[in-house]
Write a structure and sequence with these properties.
This protein is an all-beta fold and 455 residues long. The strands form seven sheets. Strands 6-12-11-8-9 form a five-stranded mixed sheet, with no helix packed on it. Strands 22-28-27-24-25 form a five-stranded mixed sheet, with no helix packed on it.
């Protein structure tokens, strides 16, 4: 049942129904308030004149929660609950100097919808006391007090009961303004937080269970994209108090557990007994690992909501992915733009390379060509890297050929070590499009053309 109370105003001429409200002291002119519902208590109206330049301690809200933090107003005889009160200093100063640095408050229990008399037979019962530091209630600040209440310690039989919280209330009756001088003294107590005690345990709960984990978009190979979805059901007896987020994680052969993405489900979709379909809105990229993978879906993985059972929030799904198709890059042709086959020192060399994809897939990422030069005298027959160029995946679709030019400029040095010498220019790639080392012994595909430096 939602927090709030139902009021009927009775006058000499009519009966008027007022909407569910949280204020137990709302009333119609010349009428009597008959409360027939349960719910939280709120601030009492002011009935005294103001004294300026003082604090004003008020109770804006008094409510009941389960140990799981769910606001509830029906319990069993063997249950417990947390009584909570929100206090505010609505005045324009803190506690006055030379006053008690603490502010005393009490929770009171009464039978029925309205608070009992404050002394004598059938008076309200003080069930808990609080002490709030003045430093926690500077002007305009709020503070919340919480006390655990075990029902059997105070209540002997099922029925309707209410709880009121009063701040700056050292005595149960005849407080004479309390320990602190305030702007108003008539609003230190809340209205009644009304609740029902039944003959059996009735702690409402939230419990998310998941089912129907499924693949909405299947990957065609390892490292491909996929979409997933699953059902989340609230098997509890009350609505989820908060929005939740759910995670999708996957583990494939040779990989750790990888977080793919998460998504959110609103509290309004998770009322008691309701279920919502959760799904990845955009495709996620799987690890590049072939074989049988396991998907893990967990509702409320950030544990925003306390549940009666936290062990049933996850589901798994196994699926198999094949090896990713690979490109097969081959070198079709390699030459110098200046032609064959002589040059001079100081001249720029301009390698030009034709690369063809003879495989069934484009490279997965930007690939590289390494350009090198070798001279028996100038480099001691070692290969010297003189430049690079890039292979774009969309330029090397299956069956496509791309023409590459070396990035940057490199000219033959003007010294005697390069004169009247043959030199070799080499380009190296990898068949799968990954970055080569410029070394055929490491699996690189290389091709060479030669030129002679005359002078």
């Amino acid at each position: 049942m939602k927090a709030g109370s139902f009021f009927v105003c009775v006058s000499l001429s009519c009966f008027t129904q007022i909407e569910w409200a949280r204020a137990a002291n709302n009333f119609c002119s010349n009428s009597e308030v008959i409360t027939i519902g349960v719910g939280a208590g709120v601030e009492k109206p002011i009935t005294d004149s103001a004294n300026p330049n003082r604090p004003d301690f008020i109770v804006t809200n008094t409510w009941l929660e389960t140990s799981k933090g769910i606001e509830v107003y029906q319990y069993g005889m063997t249950d417990s609950f947390n009584a909570k009160a929100r206090i505010q200093n609505s005045g324009n100063t803190p506690c006055l100097k030379n006053e008690n640095p603490n502010i005393t408050g009490h929770f009171y229990l009464s039978k029925g919808y309205k608070e009992d008399r404050h002394s004598g037979d059938d008076a309200w019962q003080r069930i808990a006391s609080t002490s709030t530091r003045c430093s926690n209630l500077e002007a305009s600040e709020t503070h919340t007090e919480t006390e655990k209440v075990k029902i059997r310690d105070w209540i002997d039989e099922p029925g309707i009961y209410n709880i009121v919280f009063c701040i700056d209330h050292p005595k149960d009756d005849h407080n004479n303004g309390g320990d602190h001088k305030e702007k108003h003294e008539s609003n230190n107590c809340s209205t009644e937080a009304v609740f029902e005690v039944t003959g059996r345990a009735n702690i409402p709960d939230v419990d998310f269970v998941v089912s129907g984990l499924q693949m909405l978009q299947a990957p065609s190979y390892a490292g491909g994209q996929a979409r997933f979805g699953a059902w989340i059901k609230n098997r509890g007896t009350v609505k989820s108090p908060k929005d939740i987020r759910s995670s999708y994680r996957v583990q494939c052969p040779g990989t750790e557990l990888v977080h793919l993405t998460d998504d959110g489900t609103g509290a309004e979709e998770l009322k008691a007994g309701a279920q919502a379909f959760e799904q990845t809105q955009s495709p996620v990229t799987l690890p590049n690992s072939a074989g049988t993978c396991t998907l893990y879906f967990c509702a409320d993985y950030q544990e925003a909501v306390l549940e009666t059972d936290e062990t049933n929030n996850c589901a798994t799904l196994s699926f198999t992915v094949a090896e990713r198709p690979k490109p097969n890059l081959v070198i079709a042709k390699f030459e110098d733009e200046e032609g064959c086959c002589t040059t001079n020192t100081g001249d720029r060399i301009k390698p030009k390379l034709w690369v063809r994809n003879a495989g069934s897939a484009a490279p997965v990422a930007h690939a590289t060509v390494i350009y090198q030069i070798q001279s028996p005298v100038a480099t001691g027959s070692n290969w010297l890297v003189i430049g690079y160029s890039g292979l774009e995946p969309d330029h090397l679709l299956p069956g496509q050929t791309d023409v590459e030019h070396m990035d940057g400029k490199w000219s033959i040095p003007k010294n005697s070590a390069w004169k009247r010498q043959w030199h070799n220019v080499r380009a190296c790639i990898r068949a799968d499009g990954s970055t080569p080392f410029g070394d055929p012994n490491r699996g690189d595909l290389c091709i060479v053309y030669s030129r002679y430096s005359k002078k």
